[in-house]
Amino acid sequence: MSAQDLFGDMATLEDRALGAYLGLAVGDALGGTVEFMTRREIEHKYGVHSRMIGGGWLNLKPGQVTDDTGMALAMGRALITSGGYNGEAVADSFVAWLKSKPVDCGNTVRRGLRRYINQGTLEGPYNEGDGGNGAAMRLAPLALISFGAADEDIEAWTVAQAHITHHQGRSDAACVALVRMVHAALRGEGVSGVRAEATRLIEAHPKFGFSPYRGHSSAYIVDTVQTVLHFYFSADSFRTCVTQTVNQGGDADTTGAIAGMVAGATYGASAIPSAWKGKLDRTVAAEVKAQTRALLMLAQRRADG
Ligand SMILES: [Mg+2]
């Protein structure tokens, strides 16, 4: 598609792009309440958990986000400052985020950032144990700045940001597939466009097959992607997709963030319930909006050549 086709209807594109990024933050904040709970525990305590009330094991304020959104914003800052993908800038920004004493930080992320601090390397050796969802939870800004880029660049930047903390084949495959799903949605291809990318992922890596759904919603990238895809394809709105995803429990902030990103790109920011948008941490919401505009502008400038 030409730059004119991709960026011609800027209002619609911006709504979908903001939907992806705001959807990630909203899903993170909603899911944080029930992270590490089982589906049955959530049902017993909330019936259906669908309100931005904070709490959970991190004792969050209503609308407060966790590491998923924190790392996404950190990557977005680096992409905007550099005007494109720059590995050192992204890693430095992740380190600045870590030093800001975030509310939480996964073990694989912490280990990867320590390696960068101590050795200056942008990736560690391949590690089958790096199969957590930490590289996939922060993709929204990368998906926006790489919209309309060549396939090999999309893949190279996506995998490079992943390898700063996670160097594992299924993590890489999932990250690339998720970015491509967001791109399909940004092009207006809707659920069927996302379906084509899911099929492509599962053909290459059958472990990601999610039907029948096994009900595992852990931080293992395969469980996370299966959960997101199962609820994304069984829902017909942002609200249903994200609500059902986080009510599965487990790593609910991250499954919520990823489901929110893909559903937000599909249905647009205007389809995110106002009650959720209104409760989202204001500083976060403002930065998400500003970054979305800047990232799209950079993507358009590159596409225009
Ligand atoms: Mg989190």
Q: What does this protein look like?
A:
It comes from Rhodospira trueperi. Pfam families: ADP_ribosyl_GH. Its cofactor is Mg(2+). This is ADP-ribosyl-[dinitrogen reductase] hydrolase. One of its GO terms (molecular function) is metal ion binding. The chain has one domain (3-123, 131-304): Orthogonal Bundle (ADP-ribosylglycohydrolase fold), CATH 1.10.4080.10. The longest helix is centred in the N-terminal third of the chain and has 23 residues, at 10-32. It is globular. α2 packs antiparallel against α15 (282-304) and α9 packs parallel to α13 (252-267). The two termini are 14 Å apart. 65% of the residues lie in helices and 0% in strands. The chain contains 15 helices and no strands. It is mainly alpha-helical and 305 residues long. Magnesium ion (MG) binds next to α4 and α13.
Itemize the secondary structure elements and their pairings:
Layout: H1 3-7, H2 10-32, H3 39-46, H4 67-82, H5 87-99, H6 107-119, H7 140-145, H8 151-163, H9 169-186, H10 190-204, H11 221-234, H12 238-246, H13 252-267, H14 274-279, H15 282-304
Helix pairs in contact: 2-12, 2-13, 2-15, 4-5, 4-15, 5-6, 8-9, 9-10, 9-13, 11-12, 11-13, 12-13
The structure holds magnesium ion.
Residues 66-68, 104, 253-254 line the site of magnesium ion (MG).
